[in-house]
Write a structure and sequence with these properties.
Number of domains: 1
Largest sheet: 4 strands, antiparallel
Order of helices and strands: EEEEH
Low-confidence stretches: none
Helix content: under 10%
Bound molecules: zinc ion
Structural class: mainly beta
Strand content: 25-35%
Radius of gyration: 12 Å
Strand order of the largest sheet: 2-1-4-3
Length: 73
């Protein structure tokens, strides 16, 4: 069985700043999660968030960025 070469997404948590609440975003992964070192990554919707390697996208949470949900499909 061959592995499909689909783009994988990681879940990343943005920080709350000003009126913007902290949300889960999707980050396109171009390297193994093992090599993600906790730096801030550009999310699909264009904000910066820190990848949480404990989480997989889609996140089973309610505070998920609606733009990333659409873009990660
Ligand atoms: Zn987002």
């Amino acid at each position: 069985m061959s592995t499909p070469t689909l783009t994988t997404h990681a879940a990343a948590r943005s920080r709350a700043h000003g009126p913007t609440a902290a949300l889960w975003h999707a980050v396109e992964l171009h390297r193994p999660v093992a090599e993600v070192d906790g730096a801030c990554e550009l999310t699909l919707c264009g904000s910066l968030a820190r990848i949480d390697v404990e989480q997989v996208w889609p996140v089973p949470a309610r505070d998920v960025c609606p733009a990333c949900v659409v873009l990660a499909r």
